[in-house]
């Protein structure tokens, strides 16, 4: 930002620029937008940020974000607590819930194993998952990590830990999207579609 801008505006822009996917131009637009807010709206915005940090924590069961002891999904007796879907992030839960089809519960890893990025199994919520399985309530664990090198490695690592515990471990099927055309699919997607083919 140019030196002609007020220092508080420069500092606010720098804070916005720290957010993922926000470059300096977008950060500057956001800072100016905040400047145009009424004092009441600016205070509400600031309070919302502080409120998240003070009152949101990890669910004691699934490691999703919640403001209660248990998140609403873990606290729902209508959910099938015998099926645990393991995901990388809380955003993945939102995506799966949009389908309206999954009736089990979740476990959030908060990342994927990635030695290149310095992320080891100890940095993830794997110990908490093993504790849940050892409590004897789960019949199946669905590995719903992304179909990337890190996602596959994480799914494989966790499945190796879970299989001796007598729980069924499955992996989401990956392949061609509905309405997709073969000629536009990349090699990995086509490979996964062939590998995960099912009988009709």
Automatic annotation (TrEMBL):
SUPFAM superfamilies linked: Recombination protein RecR
Domain (Toprim): residue spans on this chain: 82-177
A Gene Ontology BP annotation from the UniProt entry: DNA repair
GO MF annotation list: DNA binding; zinc ion binding
Keyword annotations from UniProtKB, A to Z: DNA damage, DNA recombination, DNA repair, Metal-binding, Zinc, Zinc-finger
UniProt keyword Amino-acid biosynthesis present: no
Zinc finger feature spans (C4-type): 59-74
Job of this protein: May play a role in DNA repair. It seems to be involved in an RecBC-independent recombinational process of DNA repair. It may act with RecF and RecO.
Family (UniProt): Belongs to the RecR family.
Protein name per its UniProtKB record: Recombination protein RecR
Organism annotation: Ruminococcus albus SY3
